[in-house]
Amino acid sequence: MKKYLKSICSLVAMSAMVFSLAGCGSSSDTSETNSNETSENTENTDSEMKKIGILQLVEHDALDNTREGFIAALAEEGFVEGENIEIDIQNAQNDQSNLKTMSQKFVNDGVDLIFAIATPAAQSAATETTEIPIIGSAITDYVEAGLVDSNEAPGGNVTGTSDKTPVKEQFDLLKEILPDVETVGILYNSSEVNSEIQAGYAKEAAEALGMKYEMGTVTSTNDISQVVQSIVGKVDAIYVPTDNTFASAMPLVASVTDTSKTPVICGENGMVSGGGLATLGIDYYKLGEQTGKMAAKILNGEDPATMPVEFSDVQDICVNLDTAKTIGVTIPDSVMEKAVIVIENGEKTTK
Predict the structure, then answer these.
(1) Residue from 316, 298, 314 nearest 136 by CA
(2) In whole angstroms, what is the distance from residue 184 CA to residue 326 CA?
(3) What is the pTM of this model?
(4) What CATH code would you report for 167-282+314-350?
(5) How do residues 237-285 score in pLDDT, each as one tens digit?
(6) Mean pLDDT of 75-103
(7) What is the pLDDT of residues 190-228, one digit of tens each?
(8) CA atoms lying within 13 Å on the CB side of residue 131
(9) Which end of the chain is less enclosed by CB atoms within 10 A, N or C?
(10) Average pLDDT of the residues in 325-336
(11) CA distances in angstroms from 17 to 3, 5, 28, 137, listed in the order given
(12) In angstroms, rounded to a whole number, what is the distance separating the alpha carbons of residues 323 and 177?
């Protein structure tokens, strides 16, 4: 009997051990399976998440609107921040050393695409990488800036949209508003390729209208007040192209020109909002949208080397009636009838 009970106990013990081992094996397999599934899901998420670095030269309306339009267009094309793209926005505050550091950061971070806003930003990014796609905007001339082989066939890792402004038409607008102008001051940052090109166009436009011109150049915002003060007594009006240094400091320009009653025709709408008199300019938000759609194609696999540089065909007249009143200028009815954006009593309205 004792021998029989001993055998029963042995069988029970062996059965318990078998079930225990089976249970351990099942738990380990399940854990390993779950771990593999989690790892696979993480890999899938990481592979779908694209990294975009936005490198902006400086803050002002035109460049800010370009950035916002870009992000909005990406979302419309299915690339939504926090869902399938990560966006890192870096603003260099118009400092070349900052541009270099930020460009290097994007390369080290291994971003999938760099959006460079303004010529110096694109040049800085292009210096740091020939592999990562770079799409630019708020750039006048990609070829002159050394960014592409040609507008039709960029040939490298850079393409984008141009904000080439209708300088000749802007001078025609100046003449329509101020028919008695004989001498115009042309102000720009001499260290920015974008501005040098436009200043050349401005000279040609002035000469074509029989105007004389005085040049005023700066290399930073620190020079603006002195340069504007030195030129207002020599000219009947001032022309400022889409120059990033002046655009970021238009209230400073206006503080001088309002006092001297000197009209300022600007390169873009944001500069008119900052105190300029008028412009015939492009819509930078729409330019950003146009660029965002190009970026979406690149993220979907298209090669920037074969994507032509695109240009904006949207040009609107913008007038600042508050400035006109301050400096004693009457905007002709012929211009007001064509104006799409009007600033009055501090409010901007769009027709």
Answers:
(1) 298
(2) 20
(3) 0.83
(4) 3.40.50.2300
(5) 999 999 999 999 999 999 999 999 999 999 999 999 999 999 999 999 9
(6) 97
(7) 999 999 999 999 999 999 999 999 999 999 999 999 999
(8) 7
(9) N
(10) 98
(11) 21, 18, 17, 71
(12) 13
Compute the average pLDDT of residues 33-61: 67
Comparing CA positions, the residue from 62, 45, 38, 58 lying closest to residue 286 is: 62
Tokens matching residue 132 = 């990562």
Q: What is the pLDDT of residue 314?
A: 79
Q: What is the DSSP string of 32-71?
A: HHHHHHHHHHHHHHHHH-EEEEEEES--SHHHHHHHHHHH
- What is the CATH architecture of 50-163+284-311? 3-Layer(aba) Sandwich (3.40)
Interhelix angle for 119-128 vs 193-208, to 10°?
140
Distance set, CA 91 to CA 55, 176, 251, 340 (Å): 6, 38, 21, 30
Helix (H, G, I), strand (E, B) or coil at 85: strand
Q: Where are the alpha helices (DSSP H) in 84-192?
A: 96-109, 119-128, 167-177
Q: Where in the chain is the domain with CATH 3.40.50.2300?
A: 50-163+284-311, 167-282+314-350
- Concatenate the DSSP letters of all residues of 271-318 into one string: HHHTT--EEEEE-HHHHHHHHHHHHHHHHTT--GGGS--EE---EEEE
